[in-house]
Amino acid sequence: MATGTRPPDTGRPGRAGVHSATRAAIAPRHLRTDRWWLAPAATAAGLLAFVVYSTWRAFANADYYAAPYVSPFYSPCLAENCVPMKGGPNWEVFGGWWGLSPALLVLVFPLGFRLTCYYYRKAYYRGFWASPPACAVAEPHRAYTGETRFPLVLQNLHRYFFYAALPVAGILTYDTVLAFRDASYAWGHMGLGTLVLLVNIALIWAYTLSCHSCRHIVGGRLKHFSQHPVRYRLWTWVGRLNARHMQLAWASLLSVALADLYVYLLAIGAFDDPRLF
């Protein structure tokens, strides 16, 4: 090793990371001079805000239905303690023994889908665990095992959560169709809430279909695209969405929170739903 490139011996065994014996003798942990910490800090703040809000709403068990709108956090409603929703997804699968908020029976599927999502993994690994905090910035951890141990090995369930997220998105689509009614359940009407749910479900479908697992399922295992023209075309469409997966992840996260907030404000009587026709 050339003179001056060997890290100084501090007498402390077990050195790791940027101060390990195999690294160059550079005193700083990184050489970046920009505000590299801003992106992971903003990511952590955004995700934390959503976690706090969604936890409050999920356990509230109230103010999630304002005819004809239902919060996406509470659909479908799978217990008897649900607010009756005329024509809505009142499916008493769990009967009357479930005493907690019915949202907890449903949110596990979209939450698991997002929690194991490839983009969200990168986001919260960097934002909360600093693993690594940014490009060209070494992580502070002494060892790295990746996703080979519990609980991170469960990230491999992402594809199965994708399968579970599809019917949830389908049910929310049904809820959006029901939103073309007025408060008396007469068809042929549209309020601002209808538009809110329309934007939300469009973003949810765009995010879901832009998933890396969806792209692989559609055409990732094909060896000859020329022999599967339909699947190849679908693969290219999903690929275009996949290029915007990060933006769709954030947009759909914001839209589902805003959709729930809008229904909540209507349910508590904060204002009346403006009618478009």
Description of the molecule:
The chain has 277 residues and is an all-alpha fold. It is built from 9 helices and 2 strands; from the N terminus they run H-E-E-H-H-H-H-H-H-H-H. It has a two-stranded antiparallel ribbon with strand order 1-2. It is globular and about 75 Å long. It starts with 37 loop residues before the first helix and ends in a 10-residue tail after the last helix. About 2% of the residues have low confidence.
What's the topology here?
Elements: H1 38-60, E1 65-66, E2 69-70, H2 103-106, H3 108-115, H4 118-129, H5 158-178, H6 192-209, H7 212-220, H8 229-242, H9 245-267
Antiparallel strand pairs: 1-2
Helix pairs in contact: 1-4, 1-9, 3-5, 5-6, 6-9, 7-8
Order of helices and strands: HEEHHHHHHHH
Q: Average pLDDT value?
A: 89
- For the secondary structure, the number of strands is 2
Strand neighbour order, sheet with most strands: 1-2
Summing up helix and strand content along with how strands pair, one would put the structural category as mainly alpha
Poorly predicted parts: 10-14
Strand content: under 5%
The biggest sheet amounts to: 2 strands, antiparallel
User: Given the C-alpha coordinates, what overall shape results?
Assistant: globular
Query: In DSSP terms, counting alpha (H) and pi (I) runs of 4 or more, how many helices?
Result: 9
Helix content: 40-55%
Q: Roughly how many Å is the radius of gyration?
A: 24 Å
Distance between the termini: 77 Å
